[in-house]
Design brief:
Order of helices and strands: HHHH
Shape: elongated
Structural class: mainly alpha
Number of strands: 0
Distance between the termini: 12 Å
Number of domains: 1
Number of helices: 4
Largest sheet: none
């Protein structure tokens, strides 16, 4: 699911409101500051896969000539490389 950069901010406010309403959290900071921090955290987590994809693209640039000659399937290499990095780094996507 793709989200715009403003959506995590809106979601964080709604989540925080529900947590406060149910008495599941107690804030030591103003509500606005907590919602902003939660939104940033959510956005960072959502960006993990995008950053990983960019890194895989950079790695595969080293094999551009082989890929262009048709000896290697780019999509397959991309998925294999991404899977290897996810396993090595214990990333949850």
């Amino acid at each position: 699911m793709r989200l715009s950069k403003s959506q995590p901010s809106l979601l964080s406010k709604k989540i925080l409101e529900e947590l406060l309403k149910k008495g599941l959290v107690e804030l030591k900071e103003p509500k606005e500051k907590a919602a902003e921090a939660l939104g940033e955290l959510m956005l960072n987590e959502l960006m993990v896969e995008e950053k990983l994809n960019a890194e895989v693209r950079e790695i595969l640039k080293q094999h551009d000539s082989e890929i262009e000659k048709g000896r290697l399937d780019y999509r397959r290499l991309f998925e294999m490389t991404k899977k290897r990095l996810v396993m090595e780094r214990n990333i949850v996507l």
